[in-house]
Amino acid sequence: MGAIRRFDHIGITVADLDLVTDFFVALGLEVQGRTPIEGEFIDTVIGMQGARTEIVMLHAPGGGTGLELSQFASPPGEPGTHDAAANVLGLRSVAFEVDDLDALVARLEGNGYGLVGGIGEFENAWRMAYVRGPEGILVALAQQVS
After folding, report:
1. What is the C-alpha separation between 55 and 67, in angstroms, rounded?
2. CB 117 within 8 A of CB 129
3. Distance between start and end Cα atoms, the chain
4. DSSP assignments along the chain, one per residue
5. Which residues form a coiled coil (predicted)?
6. Distance between CA atoms of 42 and 46, rounded to whole angstroms?
């Protein structure tokens, strides 16, 4: 009987692999590898012939679930909605627990990425904010309240 062993990674297809990789590195993720992929394997898995992609795998310090960024050279990527609100159907956000929400938000704002709304606090337990990154990627940042 088959069963899930672990949650391995989340994949995001992007138009500018370097820009989006730099954004997630600025958040604190570490690049684990970068590689081009083409041929029968990728064609079979994604159901498209002649696919060529380059991927970057990132992880938080200490490991855990990964983040895979993919940029397609063939077939070319299809544009999505870069300013989708939280109630738009589909992948809503990528979430990270952080140790200093205010410092990270300030650093991201210095890089040109601002808050979607503001920093909220939930029941004196969590502080949370959404930041819109490159290509409209929505990142949820949460810090436990001490």
Report:
1. 10
2. yes
3. 43
4. --------EEEEE-S-HHHHHHHHHHHT-EEEEEEEEESHHHHHHHT-TT-EEEEEEEEETTEEEEEEEEEEEETTPPP--TT--TTSSS---EEEE-S-HHHHHHHHHHTT--BSS--EEETTTEEEEEEE-GGG-EEEEEEE--
5. none
6. 6
Nearest to 131 by CA among 122, 123, 106: 106
Distance (Å, whole) CA 109 – CA 2:
45
Tokens of 17: 């692999």
**Which tokens hold the place of 49?**
């012939």
- Domains with residue ranges and CATH for the chain: 1-79 (3.10.180.10), 83-146 (3.10.180.10)
